[in-house]
Structures are given as C-alpha cells and as structure tokens.
Amino acid sequence: xxxxxxxxxxxxxxxxxxxxxxxxxxxxxxxxxxxxxxxxxxxxxxxxxxxxxxxxxxxxxxxxxxxxxxxxxxxxxxxxxxxxxxxxxxxxxxxxxxxxxxxxxxxxxxxxxxxxxxxxxxxxxxxxxxxxxxxxxxxxxxxxxxxxxxxxxxxxxxxxxxxxxxxxxxxxxxxxxxxxxxxxxxxxxxxxxxxxxxxxxxxxxxxxxxxxxxxxxxxxxxxxxxxxxxxxxxxxxxxxxxxxxxxxxxxxxxxxxxxxxxxxxxxxxxxxxxxxxxxxxxxxxxxxxxxxxxxxxxxxxxxxxxxxxxxxxxxxxxxxxxxxxxxxxxxxxxxxxxxxxxxxxxxxxxxxxxxxxxxxxxxxxxxxxxxxxxxxxxxxxxxxxxxxxxxxxxxxxxxxxxxxxxxxxxxxxxxxxxxxxxxxxxxxxxxxxxxxxxxxxxxxxxxxxxxxxxxxxxxxxxxxxxxxxxxxx
Length: 473
Fold this sequence. Notes:
The chain has helices spanning 20-29, 43-59, 112-117, 173-185, 198-208, 221-225, 227-233, 241-247, 253-266, 289-301, 310-313, 318-333, 338-344, 354-368, 382-389, 403-408, 427-440; strands spanning 8-13, 33-37, 65-69, 84-87, 92-96, 106-108, 123-126, 131-138, 142-149, 151-154, 159-160, 189-192, 213-218, 236-240, 271-274, 305-308, 371-377, 396-400, 415-419, 449-454, 466-471. With 473 residues, the protein is α/β, with parallel strands linked by helices. It has three domains: 8-72 and 170-335, TIM Barrel (Alpha-Beta Barrel), CATH 3.20.20; 84-160, PK beta-barrel domain-like (M1 Pyruvate Kinase, Domain 3, Beta Barrel); 354-471, Pyruvate Kinase, Chain: A, domain 1 (3-Layer(aba) Sandwich). It has an eight-stranded parallel barrel, surrounded by six helices. It is elongated.
C-alpha cells in the first residue's frame, strides 16, 4: 500500500543499490520513484534494474514511478598530460580545439559552440565554479583567458557559462539513442537536462509524444527567464540546484527554488527539489542539521518530491538516507502549521476551465464538510495533478484503468493511485465504484463523507466536469 505521507521520495539507482535486496530495502524504507541516470551505466544494466523495480513493486502492491534522466550536453575540457594542473591567479591560460594533451598553459575545449557564443569580458566557470577564467581575446577555435580564480584543474572537468545561451540542443545524439531505449523499456517519466528555452521542451515532446511524461530540469539562468512557458509545456519540473548553483550566484538558489515551486503549483505541475539534500550521508550514517533543515524547507514549501542522487547511487548508507528523508517528511507533515504554510506558498491558481474549477471547489468543500478523502477518476493523470495542486488536507485517491498512469502518479504529491475501470453504464455505478475504492483503500470508513470528481458523459477522456459528495452509510 502507498505511504501515508504526501511528499514523495525519488531515489537514484546506482552501483550501491543495484541488487534486488537493496532495491527492496529502498522501497520498504519509503522510495516512491526511482531515477535511472543515463550519464552512467549501460543499457543492459538499466534494463536489469528496471525489471527488478517493476517486479518488486508488483510483489509489494505498490505503484513505483521510473524516471529516465538524460545526460544532455556535457561541456568538458580535454585531458592534461599529467592528468591535472594548478592554475594561478593572474596567469594566462588558453582554451583551444587542438587535439593535444593539456599543460599549465593550455587545454583542449572540444566545443566549437562555446567559442561561437562567448565574447571578450565573459567569464567561464570550471570544476563546479571553483576556477574562474575571464576571456581576453577569442577566435573561432580558441580563447585567451586570464585566471581570475585559480586552483587545481584535472582532466575532463566541466565548464559552465553563466548567462550565456549556447546554440546547441538539449538533446544530444547519445540522448536520442538513450531515449529510444528508455521509451522501449516503458519508463514513466523522462528527465530532460540542459533546458535553455521552450524550444528544447518542444523538441523533446516531438521525440517522446505521449509515451512518457517530461520533467524539465531547470539548471540554466536562461530557462528561468522563460520559466512560465517552460513549466506550461512540461509535465513536471526538477529544481536542479547543482548546476543552478554554479551558473547563478549561490545566494540566489533558495530564492529561485521558492519561485520555481510556487510557479509549478500555479500551473499544476509536479515539482522535484534535487541535489545535495543529504550529501553528507554519502560517507556518514547521519546528515548534518543544515541538511535536515534543507529537506524540511522543501517539504514546507509544498514540493511534490525530494530527490536523493549520490546518496543512494554510490553512497555508503543508501537505505539510511531514504529512512532519514522519510522521517523528515513525516515530522514536517505532522506539524499543525504544515498545511497553513503550503497554502501561503501557493500563490494564485491558474484557473482557466472546468477542470481547474472542479479541483479548486473540491478543496474548498473539504474545508467545510468533514471529508475523509477525494476520489478522482483520471485516464491521463492530469485531473489528479489539478487536485494535488490545491494540497488538500485529505488523501487523494486516484482511480485509473491504466497501470502506467498509476505509476506516473506515484511522483505526485498526496496521490494514492488505484487501478479501477472507468467505463460505467450509469451514474449510480460511477458512484458505487468510487465508494468501494475508497473503502478498499483503508483510508475511508462507513460513516465518512467523500468527494468524487470525474467526467460526464462517462468514459470520455480528458474532461472533468463532475463534483459529487457522498455520505457512506
């Protein structure tokens, strides 16, 4: 059965958690969704692990979401002759396209697009922002820089270009092959890296269609400039605080996180907060107090899910990290101020039609009528997204005839997906089916009220126009 908490846990599978036993332990510890990072691992490994997740979820009576995270463009320097160099502040350092091993004076940067986009005076960040280079002059294939902030630079370290929009697609040739494979496997969500503009999301949609839902990772400042448009075209959003914290001033990341979470709530899109949430648990069995507060803040803000990356992929204490995440979520959601806080953070809902209005009204009714749960019929999952946006202080029982939709909904705040048919010959059967599902969930009992939402005429996809209350005798 699903957990009682509303906020979801997305955990990354990696070498530390690839076995059947570890995956089972992670599910039991509270994982709702698994991230498959296509920057690492082989197709064969991903297939084996996904099959294990599906098998164990079925055995445990759970719907677990599977997220395929595409690598995206990786901008990196080439190799150094001695694997690394130490750059000193004020020295001259050249980036070029030469196919030669790097030295303290130069290194290969095999990305012509970077040389086309940069201008004199721009700054490049290397090695997660620990090294800063300022452009002094450039050609089509090279750039002379001055080291503004020095330090150790080793082979294949990443390059970030703050406030520079690169003329490249978010989907590389590798991503296209990975995407074909992931969709063939039947993943529920695809995570799109390096999103710079709405055009990147449109390109992904053409390739993916309705075979999976799209999560756009926000890690570039240019994406923040088109925030509403990107959210509207995506199915969900990930606040990728790692690269975002390199490309933007660190002190702005908490502000951007709140802005993104609030905007996602407005458009009824699930939002995931990711990166370094329990980072110290990669090596230690307990997190820092600051990390605990960081997770709690994301939960208080009303995010749909919090994510573990290296903590579960390669960490020494993956199961403990999930258990700790679950404890933090449970503690925060038990706070009497929790629902008041997430209501304050919601902002104005983006209501444009029947579905939005029904979801809003269902939540308002739940405040004045003692309701045990809202039962929503959904064939695509979007109706549940709308109900979840309102963050009702009652369970959301999502009835769908499609197991794939049920798995997708495992990543949505408060949703308890159940497989039930949605085609009925009469309204009475529509009501009876919802009542029975509510009782079967164990969340509702005789004597309780429930709210039912759905579409009429019955069985028509993509329409929600019914709001019905029932007192279960």
